[in-house]
Amino acid sequence: MTQTFTITRLGHQGDGIAEGPVFAPRTLPGEAVSGTVVGQLLTEVRVETPSDQRVKAPCRHYKSCGGCQLQHASDAFVADWKVEIVRKALDAQGIEADMRPIHTSPERSRRRATVAVRRTKKGTLAGFHGRASDTISEIPDCHLLHPDLIAAIPVAEALALLGGSRKGVLAVTLTLSEGGLDVAVKGGKPLDGPLELALAQATEHHGLARLSWDDEVIATRQQPVQRLGTAEVVPPPGAFLQATKDGEQALLQAVLQVTEGAKRVVDLFAGSGTFSLPLAQTAEVHAVEGEADMTAALDQGWRKAKGLKRVTTEARDLFRRPLMPDELRHFDAIVLDPPRAGAEAQVSELAQAKRPVIAYVSCNPVTFARDAKTLVNAGYTLEWVQVVDQFRWSSHVELAARFTLNS
Ligand SMILES: C[S@@+](CC[C@H](N)C(=O)[O-])C[C@H]1O[C@@H](n2cnc3c(N)ncnc32)[C@H](O)[C@@H]1O
């Protein structure tokens, strides 16, 4: 039975929500939509009265591809929606903050992406997971990926022909580096002698910088260097890297602004040194990160760089063993950039340590707001929040924020 609804808001996945709740994918607030309700989902959705924020999706793959959720909305709408998500999360914790204008990465700027590749009767199918979860959508004209990444998709297909099983889907992470393409494959056939040889030959044939297979490095032709400040770092295969260089720079500028003038900085959840190494141009830095191979990469990058102040590293699980107030008192600025779960345990210690300034970078407004509340209760002020959108047209929200200790 066809029913009509009015969309009142968007949910966290970017779906329109009508009273019920009924979820209507790819609709916008204020729109009258009709369709058939299955469970809580509106199917066969027809937009009866379009919003004035509705636009024609720029990408021709949008209909079938699951990579983007919000191409049917204007850039201004998406920008406001993302900033509002953060504002509301803070509001729910009773916190007000100055929201800076959002910084959005340009189209076709993603330098890293994981494509799904399946072997088929005819050969291979590679792209992003489709809107229907068991499909793969080809993306030759993707508006997110850097053109060099799109050009690399045939490499992912060739690797699937060599080592993809008939049933499984390979996850091929493609990263642009100064040495060329850095490729990390998961979900392939187990390595044996002939496969390893074939993969090593493929590394040569396709001119890859590095190829790894289920975390094992098969071959390195060129070091897959990432430039972090003036340092050159070779991150471990598949390790975290900010999704766009542009977004990385926006987050870094915010962090540098917060920590300006600091002489000793601690960088918590430091990864391979995205913030630590640029910070070391003016301050001594202690970088703490859970993954020992990332701290090793950071340390190597620092050792080879010239003119940086001292950087020390520590591999440490900050959920279980956060830095304690006694360890934090050495630092005049704190940087933290935790995963989506936030940094509850570490922030409790920061609350007690009462350091002058904190730069908090987050990819989850809800856990950020929870941790912000702990800091505000302990006597910090949240001065500003800078939303950074490196996942254009998706429902992801990232931010950098400045906390200062009240005098
Ligand atoms: C959002 S990334 C940020 C990395 C880095 N700041 C950057 O911008 O490239 C979060 C980092 O936290 C690390 N991490 C996750 N859980 C952790 C834990 N329990 N203790 C310490 N580090 C952790 C991850 O390995 C990852 O490098």
What does this structure look like?
It is a single chain. 26% of the residues lie in helices and 32% in strands. The protein has 407 residues and is an alpha/beta fold. It has an eight-stranded mixed β-sheet, with helices on both faces. It has a seven-stranded mixed β-sheet with strand order 9-8-7-10-11-12-13. Strand 2 and strand 3 form a beta hairpin. Helix 1 packs parallel to helix 10, helix 3 packs antiparallel against helix 4 and helix 9 runs parallel beside helix 10. The longest helix is centred in the N-terminal third of the chain and has 18 residues. It starts with a strand and ends with a strand. Bound molecules: S-adenosylmethionine (SAM).
Mean pLDDT across the residues is 96
As a percent range, the share of helical residues equals: 25-40%
* Strand percent estimate: 25-35%
Identify every distinct bound molecule in the structure, by name, code or SMILES. Answer: S-adenosylmethionine
What is the number of beta strands? 22
Characterize the quaternary organization of these chains.
single chain
Regions with little confidence, pLDDT below 50 for 5+ residues: none
Supply the helix-strand structural class: alpha/beta
Number of distinct helices: 10
The Rg value, from CA coordinates, equals 23 Å
Q: Termini, distance in Å?
A: 63 Å
User: How would you write the strand order of the largest sheet?
Assistant: 6-21-22-20-19-16-17-18
| C-alpha geometry | flat
Largest sheet geometry: 8 strands, mixed
